[in-house]
# Entry
Amino acid sequence: MKETSVEGIVADNPLKSIWKNFINGRPISPVGMHGEILRSWKRCKAWRINPNLTRAPLVLTDNEFLDHRKLYENLLTISRPIMENLYRLVVGGGFIVCLSDEQGILLDILGDEKALKGAQVASFVLGASWSENAVGTNAVGTPLYLDRPFQISRSEHYSLFFHQWAGSGAPIHDPSGRTVGLICITGPYEKVHAHTLGMVVTAVGAIENQLKVEANMNALVVADNYKNTIIESISEGLMAFDSEGTVTHINEIVASAIGLHKAEVLNRRLDTVIPKRNSILHRIIDQKERVTDYEVNIATEQGMISGLITTRPIISRGNLEGTLLLFRDIARARQLVQRLSGKETQFTFTDLIGSDPKFMEPVKLARKASEGNSTVLLLGESGTGKDIFAQSIHNAGSRKNGPFVGLNCAALPRELIATELFGYAEGAFTGAKREGKPGKFEIASGGTIFLDEIGEMPLDLQTTMLRVLETRTITRVGGQEVIPVDVRIIAATNRNLAADVYSGRFRKDLFYRMNVFLIRIPPLRDHKADIPVLVAHFMKVISAKLNKNQITQISPDVLAIFNRYNWPGNIRELQNVIERAINLCKGTVLLPEHLPQELLSAEEPEVFQTKPHYEVELIRSLLKKYNHNISRVASAMGIARNTLYRKLAKHNL
# Structure
């Protein structure tokens, strides 16, 4: 292209004269001139753009261009085929088809060899900036500035050198509406047609549609990744089936449970993955039943697995498309139930406070018991701390991370104890849950079950308990399936079980089964030396709980009363008395006036009496049965030989 000066331009059309007058600062009459062209010229003049430019002033270096181009790889990949199609429509006419970024930097160029050589003179090359504030009004920068398709021809260009060109440009928008680039056709002005801009707009539409497809595909990929991450991160196993029962989704938890890889399960029917003999599971899936925490036992090639399943229908536009199944391992479910509704193990051996040898001896035995898994029988009056002993043994043993489940056999109606202990099967009785319910033994599997007040257990259940102790299995009420349970049993009672055996209230064989590791917990009256340290402990804990930390002392008279009192309610009674006194105390010292009347009126310790006639008859019966073998009689009563000798002397036997 031949360079032409502003003054030497030939006025071959009215716009040239308008442009010449505008550039020279003379008044103009923009009749027939597009308003956007005039506004663009005014912007260019304000930006001090040289109207005599012969080339684009800003071109990226090769390295800069390569780095910049990497940012637009997706746009380039999508645009290139469409640019090639567009170029086929104008090939041989001296036209150039180009792609720029949103700033007007040229990213890709197609054209005839002659046209490309001519464009190089004006730096219409890769990496050149053809923004409006770089080269003035042009078919790349001006449409980008206006953010709409626009055509620039001849003297509409701000720079004189480009007056022999004509171009049509249209911005490219991504699915969010953000401008990401531009397609332009430029070439000799005499060969430009009115429909050229329409061709460019059509090409841009095709690019934008493909960008939408790409965005949707990316969104689907992201959503799929989110879905897979969620599926694998949940603690339950998950499977999804289509309406024909084919597995469409599965996470690693279920795949591992049934001993298969996910790829071996996907797109297969359930009956080819899990044998049909699991009739309950197949029935639920085939009939698309809706169940919640339904217990199932699934036979796999790896063996039997037990779990709770929850199923929900997959509905799309009102149509049933499949079924979602959640699987929770029964052992984890039991631990969760125990943690949420079972007995919390908050006590350890540090909570067994005392120093009296009569108290420390059973603590020593309890520590030894915690080292194994043998059944423990705790004997002691109410309030002596049998529950604390049981929790301490559990928390110090190998099962401390397993559940600790407690049941007070005296706190439940007779007819409910069996279902609480052993659970019930599906449809065991009217009002039972459809899927059945696990009992305390199942929930405690892997941990410890604490049977408080075992002496109150009905005789018929004692027979069942004996079988559990012998076989370590249970059968639910109304069921047939034998379920193994891995539990340690700690039992406790305030009754004289030996006497109950004699009277027929407690099975002898069960007593011997329970009497593996016998621990007798003394009443408080037998280790009164521990009262001061117990009082100090309870004062500290209870004062903090009641926000009465100012109470720091106890009157010597109160301690004297405590030592005189017989404590029939044992340590629990002492704790309650101190809590009552702290509530009543207004100062800093606990005084006798803060104590209940029964303590104030107690003068001498009460003599603890058992039922002597039961004990006498029991000893006589056992002496006769074992032919006066002292060792065997003492063992049957669960006492030491020296204790038996004292009882023989006491009763003149």
Q: What stands out?
A: Residues 245 and 285 are 7 Å apart (CA to CA). The longest helix spans residues 196-233. The domain at 612-650 is CATH 1.10.10 (Arc Repressor Mutant, subunit A).
